Amino acid sequence: MTAAKIKASTHKIIDAYKTKLFNYPDSIFQSTPPIAGWSYSEVYSHIFDASLLSIIAMEHAANGKGENKPTHFIVKMILLLGALPPAKKYKVPKRLADRVKKISKTEALDFILEFEKALEDNYPLIADAKPDCKTKHPRLGYLNAKQWLRFIEIHLKHHLKQLERIEKSFQA
Asked: Once rounded to an integer, what is the mean pLDDT over residues 105-116?
């Protein structure tokens, strides 16, 4: 998949996050859902914080501040297929989990807009990025700039499904 297609897909996913955000009642946005786990608020906090950190990693790889390390086969398959392997629940790395907090809907929208700007500012760097210059992802290992962009798209899709599970739990 081309970087342009990944970027376009990412923008569609971001639009879905915005639509959902505007439709969530203020009264339950920060509430722990009936299925337990993260609230809507905490999902937004995590996904856009992690996406901004991923943009920084993508920028470093694009600017030659990485290493020439292999990308594991299973990671290449994840990137090719565009989805994380099925699992009951993924464990967020502690350093990322510690950053998750309950935020307001306004803060969530600000996070989204900050991410969109960072994506637009850094996307042009991918065209000239060396594919063998990679920075380390906490779980997936070394990714180059285009792979980081693809990871961001996959990660955003993954948490969109989480939001849908939370929605169903509130409707039950």
From this structure: 98
